Amino acid sequence: MALVAAVEAGCGVAQYTSNEVKQAVVGFGSASKEQVQNMVARSVGSPATPESPDVADALALAVCHLTSQPLRQAIAAAGGGRTVIGWLSGRLIARTGRRAARRCARGRVTG
What we know:
Blueprint: H1 2-8, H2 18-25, H3 33-44, H4 53-79, E1 83-88, E2 91-96, H5 98-105
Antiparallel strand pairs: 1-2
Helix pairs in contact: 1-5, 2-4, 3-4
């Protein structure tokens, strides 16, 4: 419900698997928590790794989202309107339009 409400309010919604986040932050999808924490600290310019795993996860998601922005912007520019991007069964899914956004938020996007 939270995703549907966000889409209907015009907010951007993004979902990433743990492997996608690890790939974006560390460079490979099977990285350990410690590797992610170390790379997050380097990415944000911190001399120390985040003490809380939750803080490291939140920062890793932010880094992942920021590194995927050029792709999102290119797809939005090509398709116009609302664009929903996500992974479904290991495939990148991009849909435009309000109906597609609702279907994606409800998990009904098909490739």
